[in-house]
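LAB NOTEBOOK - FOLDING QUEUE
OPERATOR: T.R.
BATCH SIZE: 2
PURPOSE: Compare the predicted structure-token outputs for two unrelated chains run back to back under identical settings.
PRIORITY: normal
REVIEWER: second-year student, initials M.K.

ITEM 1
FIELD SEQUENCE / FIELD STRUCTURE:
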Amino acid sequence: MRLIFAFLLLLASCSPQSDPPSPEPSSSEGTFESNNPYLVVLGIAQDGGAPQAGSHTDVRWNDPSNAHFATSLGLVDPETGKRWLFEATPDFKQQWYALDTRAGLREERVPDGIFLTHAHIGHYTGLMFLGHESVGAQGVPVYVWPKMATFLTDNGPWSQLVKYKNIEIETLGPDTVVELSDSLNVRSFLVPHRQEFSEVAGFIVQGPNRKVGFIPDIDSWEEWDSTGIGLDRFLESVDVAFLDATFFANGEIPGRDMSSFPHPFISHTMERLARASEETKSKVIFIHLNHTNPALQMDSEANLVIKKAGFRVARPGDEIEL
């Protein structure tokens, strides 16, 4: 691990030491000068959050300020007062509250829609809070690809949400563009990742001025390259990109060879983009960090390496105006 850090520090030293150029996430709590829609980061951790169940020695149990919810983004449109969630995590109720608070919403009403990437536990299980054991929602649009739609419809307890019309399944496809307003839309695309129960999707959110991509899970950039899309073309098409950062580097989990883990290491993504322009690097925001990932700590050596190389790590509360 020390050798990896040393190499990456050397790599980073070839880049300018100043902060990456805008657009920067903001902590302005929605107080942009314009009334444009914006995204807010509601969680940055891998599916199990941090600390994870069973990790009794994790110091975050005694320091809640360093704990992290599972990865989720919120989308707010100040013009219409509507807001949407990307992912329904196990931390759904706290993230829903945080989104409404950030949006300045005073009335109690359900989200205007939820976009799901796939059927791994950190990405859809929060739907349970929409059921009659909790809020008893009615007709919340849930945007998914066909296999995910079948998974929710045919398997309990999720099928009960469909049966009782707590949620309304909206099926996505390769040409689907979800128009949320005249100047705000979302489209999705498939990415290669473990598909035990569903497809795995990424999203592009387009506002009046910016496009933001969201890929919290992917097996490898090289496998995606083989589909004819790939990371380079993706970064050309967006202004900001939230990318899978589950693990920082091999050796992060003691005693395990992580080379076959189905996620691109942050170290690999940075190496792959080492020759990219500073503008391209500044688009990348790492998200979906495992509880073992040293980059979860803002003052860690890993975070220093990432920043010096021209990239960023998502932080709860970050906002990006669209």
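ITEM 2
FIELD SEQUENCE / FIELD STRUCTURE:
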Amino acid sequence: MSGESVLLTDLYQLTMLQAYWQRGMNDTAVFEFFVRKLPEQRNFLIAAGLEQVLDHLEDTAFSAEEIGWLRQSGRFDPDFVDSLANWRFAGDVDALPEGTVCFADEPLLRIVAPIREAQLVETRIINLLQLQTMVASKAARCVLAAPGRLLVDFGLRRSHGAEAGLLSARASYLAGFGGTSTILAGMRWGIPLFGTMAHSFIEAHASEAEAFANFARSQPTGTTLLIDTYDTEQAAAKLVGLVPRLTAEGLRVNAVRLDSGDLGEHARRVRAILDAGGLSAVRIFASGNLDEYRLRDLLRGGAPIDGFGVGTRMNTSADKPYLDCAYKLQEYAGLPRRKRSEGKLTWPGRKRICRSFNADGRMTGDTLTVAADRTGQPDLIVPVMRQGRRLAPSPGLGVIREHVRAELARLPERLRELDPAAEGYPLTVSEALRALARDADRASGLDV
């Protein structure tokens, strides 16, 4: 999201920067972003949000207005404030490609830069990666629960703010959704747009049939009609008589939408009415407080629903609306660093992730090791930025969608299920990384 204020951050980022500046501390720092542990209801995560992070790192700078406001605040040393006029991110970034399946303790992104650069970007990096990774992971579960069905993001209006709604459209699309109702996402990223009508359109007309006809005439190449404003089955019966007349006018009704009540039972009754009336080509689309669990239950129950609008519960990841994630210092001035706090232990240094597969191509386990440990296996973390500039344009969403599809196909079957797997995905910490951790502890004066 380019053009945003660099002051969209936490106060402590600037207070630390001032302290570093006053002490002349600006050696190279290594920070990594990772998720400490998976939410209880998640067997995996999908890395997402990297493109927006790179946009931020390339574009962010202090404006004259921001410099002036900081000076007038009286909170900071005036000479320190003046130094911010030349602040730019000119560091290196390595990251998991967007759409990669990942797990707890695995770095999704690594920053290598002078500590004043690496520190200031912490808040926004967490903000961007946490949201899209959380939503993409929830959306991927919906895709697994409803294979072969059209899934559309309907969540903008109940997202936690405009940016969250927009980025949720992107995250759900890269995870496998077929499109979104958010127009700006269509303009910005080319995501297919889907939409029907509101109940108010029906209520504003003298009759339901008149509303259906008028809306179909305004969308002559094909439309979806909302049929649950009054009586769902009666509305379906009205269409049996109306659709042939609309067809004679060259108009096409593609689908009907159900948005309330017992969606499975209504879908069965509507399907029977439409089929008996010769409208077997008209599909059924359903929405209304859906998530992966409702999708699974509806389809297991045999509901004849062809597509779903999934909004609030997916865009807010309602069952687990945050990730326990962090952006932590792993190395400074060439020395390994790590946090030892209870429940928040980190592994130091620059790391790599090596993934193993069985003969069927399914993932069998990951190894977390130091970046210099050449195991013969490729590193999942790849270079994406050097000296503050992208190494290549970000891949299109179509490329990322295909990567997600392939990643999900390689998941062990137990991890594709919605319920927590009895056996989690194995992550092995190499002896080389454990040795580095002991070195970091000794440097901190701890007994090891």
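REVIEWER COMMENT (ITEM 2): The chain has two domains: 11-135+322-443, 149-315.
FOLLOW-UP: none requested
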